[in-house]
């Protein structure tokens, strides 16, 4: 019986319950690119951000007009030192200091700059000389922040393309490319850990799916909760989301370089330390076709040449429905506090959705997918519905079966002991059947989540739960967004409930 140990746990020590306290949610923002000749002016864009509840933006420069417009709005900002300035910042500390004074200190704290991205996807640049300059430039920018007393408030990182990984499947085989692993990534990770910063990764499940549509299911790439689980044969961890697999591959790659994180054999995944991995870009196009010479594609699979099947997969995958599904998965996952991964269940995560607008000067022609990643059209209307406040879209909290019955049982008992209404899953209750830990945990998790106003961090339970955006059912019990009710199977089917 799923609730058989409830009294024992409720009488236990606080340390037993502590891991299931609501987690601090990460931050979900947008990448604000401006490669378009039809985009709204800066003042209008800032009003749009505020109206939409978007509280964090990533810029691809440190544009003075934008930074002034963002002053006193409360919106946090990551600015970027462009690749063109990287060599100078690396070679001359005074150049880095001038850049920081002009582009960070001049606007802080009225403009809430919290990060500096030094370059963007430097390893993919045609000029490979920049690769060796990356960590020295990061160090000089950090030293400039130290001298100005801003190093605690403003962290230094650099967004790397996911192609920096030589292998990414299974996640436990994740490793960085030989040309950058020891020479650049190792000193970079040491720098990030020493300065309390984080690695930022541009992760795009879309491009991995387009490369291998015969091996990757669309549901898995989109993060749909009904995606079949894929098991890592080494760790036994089960993945229902390609983004999770990409993030864990990154964590394994980091560990292989010998950061002070716990070893890969450490059984307590929650105890891992070391640099965090945040998502500096992720998104899904609503239209268009992948073009040769576009974004770098993931390594570790595929022929390396675009073929007809890949183009056809891209055509089919790039749709409004799929973009809505993926980006809402991304937004609502972070807002719910469900930021952990199978390997790092306690990890927090910041995400920047790419991108704010469809930009007509990106890519190669109007049918290039690069012009169709925006959440908004240039006229400021939404491409599809989304909600950065997390309150308008219906959502439910369900159990993550991949963590195993023991962790689900402990989290279930925590939920029932901390406000969830668990009467209906007691023996004889309306939702007692099926009498499984997964079913009872989903009931308890959702009750806790709904009773706490679907607040950030209330559907996490150290990675044992996740938010979904379709109404699930267990047996004859379906789960509306304000609690469970008993329904007939026919009613459940007619209303589109999905069995779990």
Automatic annotation (TrEMBL):
**Residues of the signal peptide:** 1-25
Single GO BP term: carbohydrate metabolic process
Chain spans, region Disordered: 275-311
**Organism classification:** Eukaryota, Viridiplantae, Streptophyta, Embryophyta, Tracheophyta
Q: Which residues form the X8 domain?
A: 395-479
One annotated GO molecular function is: hydrolase activity, hydrolyzing O-glycosyl compounds
List the protein's name.
X8 domain-containing protein
Keywords assigned = Disulfide bond, Glycosidase, Hydrolase, Signal
Task: Give the family from UniProt.
Answer: Belongs to the glycosyl hydrolase 17 family.
């Amino acid at each position: 019986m799923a609730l058989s140990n409830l009294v024992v746990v409720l009488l236990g020590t606080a340390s037993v319950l502590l891991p299931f306290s609501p987690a601090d949610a990460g931050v979900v923002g947008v990448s604000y690119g401006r490669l378009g000749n039809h985009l709204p002016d800066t003042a209008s864009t800032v009003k749009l951000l505020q109206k939409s509840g978007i509280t964090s933006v990533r810029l691809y420069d440190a544009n003075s007009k934008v930074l002034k417009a963002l002053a006193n709005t409360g919106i946090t900002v990551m600015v970027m030192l462009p690749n063109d300035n990287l060599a100078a910042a690396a070679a001359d500390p005074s150049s880095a200091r001038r850049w920081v004074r002009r582009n960070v200190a001049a606007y802080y704290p009225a403009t809430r700059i919290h990060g500096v991205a030094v370059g963007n996807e430097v390893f993919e640049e045609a000029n490979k000389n920049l690769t060796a300059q990356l960590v020295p430039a990061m160090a000089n920018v950090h030293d400039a922040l130290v001298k100005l007393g801003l190093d605690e408030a403003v962290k230094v990182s650099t967004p790397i393309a996911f192609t920096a990984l030589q292998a990414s499947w299974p996640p436990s085989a994740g490793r960085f490319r030989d040309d950058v692993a020891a020479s650049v990534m190792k000193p970079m990770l040491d720098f990030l850990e020493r300065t309390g910063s984080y690695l930022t990764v541009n992760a795009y499940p879309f491009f991995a799916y387009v490369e291998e549509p015969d091996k990757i299911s669309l549901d898995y790439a989109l993060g749909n909760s009904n995606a079949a689980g894929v098991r890592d044969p080494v760790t036994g961890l089960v993945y229902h989301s390609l983004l999770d697999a990409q993030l864990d591959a990154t964590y394994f790659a980091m560990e292989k370089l010998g950061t002070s994180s716990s070893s890969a054999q450490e059984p307590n995944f929650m105890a891992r330390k070391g640099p965090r991995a945040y998502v500096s870009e992720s998104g899904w196009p609503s239209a268009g076709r992948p073009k040769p010479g576009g974004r770098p594609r993931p390594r570790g699979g595929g022929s390396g040449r675009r073929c007809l099947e890949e183009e056809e997969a891209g055509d089919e995958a790039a749709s409004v429905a799929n973009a809505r599904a993926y980006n809402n998965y991304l937004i609502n996952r972070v807002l719910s506090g469900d930021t952990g991964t199978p390997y790092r269940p306690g990890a927090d995560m910041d995400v920047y959705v790419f991108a704010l607008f469809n930009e007509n000067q990106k890519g190669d022609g109007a049918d290039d997918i690069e012009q169709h990643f925006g959440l908004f059209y240039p006229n400021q209307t939404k491409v599809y519905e989304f909600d950065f406040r997390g309150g308008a879209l219906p959502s439910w909290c369900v159990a993550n079966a991949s963590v195993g019955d023991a962790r689900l049982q402990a989290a279930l008992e925590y939920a029932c002991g901390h406000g969830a209404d668990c009467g209906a899953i007691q023996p004889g209750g309306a939702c007692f059947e099926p009498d499984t830990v997964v079913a009872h945990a989903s009931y308890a998790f959702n009750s806790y989540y709904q009773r706490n106003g679907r607040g950030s961090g209330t559907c996490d339970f150290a990675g044992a739960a996740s938010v979904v955006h379709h109404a699930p059912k267990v047996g004859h019990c379906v789960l509306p967004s304000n609690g469970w009710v008993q329904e007939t199977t026919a009613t459940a089917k007619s209303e589109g409930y999905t069995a779990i």
